[in-house]
Amino acid sequence: LKSGLIPLRTRLSSAAVGRRADFARVGFLRCAMGVQLWLVFLGAAMMAHAGYGLMAEKQAADLLGEGVSAVSSQVFVEVLVGAAMALWGGIGDFKPIRVDDPKKPRWESLHGRPDFYCYNTRAKMIRPLLESTLPTPPS
Question: How confident is the model at residue 112 (pLDDT cuts 50, 70, 90)?
Fold first, then answer.
C-alpha cells in the first residue's frame, strides 16, 4: 500500500462510525437515557409563555385601573398542558414492578435481622407518667 491511500475496509468503517456519531448527536434530544428532552423543553417554554401572558394581563389591568381577580382560562390550560408535557418528557422509560422472588437479596433487607427485633422498650413506663400529669379528656 502507498502511504497516501486508505484501504477500502477502513474507509467504510470510518464512514459507518461517522453516521453513528451523527445519529448519536441527533438522538440526544430525541431520547437521552429514556428522557425525551424536547418534551421537557417544550413544556417549560409553554409554562414560561403562560407566565408572560399572565404578566401582560396584569399590566393591562393595572393600566385600566382594575385589579386582576382571577387567572384566565387560556393561561390556566397552558400551564396545565405545559406541566404535563414537561413531566411526561422527564419520566423516561416505564418499567414493570416485579414482586416475585428476587434472584439476589435486595440491599434494603441485607441488614434486617428479625430475630433481634425488640418490642419491649422503656416506653411502656411513660403511660403512667402521662396519665398522672395530663387531665382526663371530657367525655
Answer: confident
Helix (H) or strand (E) holding 97: none
Half-sphere exposure in the Cβ direction for 107 (13 Å, CA): 0
Instruction: Provide the whole-model pTM.
Output: 0.46
Report the 10 Å Cβ neighbour count for 93: 8
Listed in sequence order, the residues at least 6 apart from 24 whose beta carbon sits closer than 8 Å to its beta carbon are none
* Grid coordinates belonging to 14: 470510518
Long-range Cβ pairs for the range 53-56 (8 Å, 24+):
53/78
- Express each pLDDT in 51-99 by its tens digit: 999 999 889 888 888 877 788 899 999 999 999 999 988 887 777 776 6
Sign of the C-alpha dihedral, residues 11, 15, 21, 24? negative
DSSP structure string for 19-68: HHHHHHHHHHHH-BTTB-HHHHHHHHHHHHHHHHHHHHHHHHHHHHT---
